[in-house]
Amino acid sequence: MSEIIPKNNIFKVIGASSLGTLIEWYDFYIFGSLAVIIGHQLFPEDAGASALINTLAIFAAGFIVRPFGALVFGRLGDLIGRKYTFLLTLVLMGGSTFLIGLIPSYKTIGYAAPILVLILRLIQGLALGGEYGGAATYVAEHAPKNRRGFFTSWIQTTATLGLFLSLGVIVITKNILGAEAFGNWGWRIPFLLSIVLVVVSIYIRMKMHESPMFSKLKSEGKISKNPLKESFSQKANFKMVLLALFGATMGQGVIWYTGQFYAQSFLENTCKLDFNDSRYILLWGIAFATPFFVVFGSWSDKVGRKWIMLTGMLLGIVFYRPIYQIFLNDTDTSKMDLTGAVYMAPKVKHEVIPGTPDSLYTSTTKVTLKNGASFNKIQVDTLSLKNGLLPAKEIIKDKVLPTATFWKFVGLIFFQILLVTMVYGPIAAFLVELFPTKIRYTSMSLPYHIGNGVFGGLVPFIATLIASFAGSTPLSGLWYPIGIATLSLVIGTIYLSNKRDENIND
Description:
The longest helix is centred in the middle third of the chain and has 36 residues, at 235-270. The protein is globular, with a radius of gyration of 24 Å. The protein has helices spanning 7-33, 35-42, 49-64, 66-80, 82-100, 106-109, 112-140, 148-177, 179-186, 188-206, 212-219, 227-232, 235-270, 275-289, 291-303, 306-330, 403-424, 427-432, 440-456, 459-468, 479-495; strands at 342-343, 347-352, 359-368, 374-384, 388-389, 393-400. It has two domains: 2-331 and 403-495, Up-down Bundle (Growth Hormone, Chain: A), CATH 1.20.1250; 342-400. By secondary structure, it is of the alpha+beta class. The model has no long low-confidence stretch (mean pLDDT 83). The termini are close together. Helix 5 (82-100) runs antiparallel to helix 7 (112-140) and helix 13 (235-270) packs antiparallel against helix 17.
């Protein structure tokens, strides 16, 4: 039945599905893009590095519950249809994102702030767990057999484009309001704006028709009575679920989140790049690499899905540590030529540490190099009434790269996102071809969201945590995604078949 869908109709299907999915990803990723600022809002001022780790843990919680959303909404999708299920997920996602923008800070309501945000992140995770499987299944069940990789790859662009949109809105808002206002209250605007996008998408999705394959199944009375039981109690189908998880989506997930989210976190928090610089680098990398989702999705229609995905994993395993070592080397101020550098007169700030008789004296000097690079050199002196003047602490942050290094970093981010397009572009077609129509939504959603939501989504949190251990190096966190990708590569190489153009009408 999917073979005779007119071409203009399939693009309407893709457009309506993709817009809603893009908005859901935008909603989901704003939080990660603002983790540092949100951490200052949700936790005490003296929380230090633990505020970032706790915020990343809240961010990760949204990923952990995605498999449960896949089960709940996957079951609904196989019982009542694709259209209304992922319409519901869109409403839940948009509503919870909007409410995060309204929650008061720690100063106002104490630890109720992070608890409320955690609850809303869990709702976001549940909603996203039901969204992707519905959108990918809906498009695949409209697409002609020999172009399934091409058409579903448009859905695959939405995750990265959602990240791109979130970064763009954040940078524009910050530049309009200024850093201080954005840090105090302006960070809420990207969350609040999402409600407008959601309303538009709901209007468009209300006009969509049900998937032709599901409609045919429903008219013939062949809808699954218990999708969960059929998906996971039947040995052959459960074997496919496990193979999809450990041989594909697990490795694909860590490649996705390392190349985009951990890369941003590393540049900002480890390399101490300027807020705008770190985001501009990612924005350019995403802009250059995004078309390759469609390139690799379309190519998989010709050569199969397996080896494209596994090659992306292999390249990540080989090149991650060298790439991140370059990031470290090129932002190390101790290796920079300071000859002829201009030192701006230091700005001194004094503040009393809340709850103590101690005072902080912060002296910030902006250093500008001959090549146009700059950074802030901050000296922090603590005056304690008990212990006198404590040893000064020097902090280097807000590094702005010279033009040549900036574009070098864009190239390295582009390469990482190119690997994302290799593993992610063909994955939707690969998953829908594994499972029969009547339990497809449930069966494909679970391995996808465990692989991406748990293994992939935990990359920023686990990698940052590993790098904070005593005796670790800034690159130690990379062993987590490298290890997971290696395991998936081995399993996928041995057990995955290189199928393409499978008949999914049964």
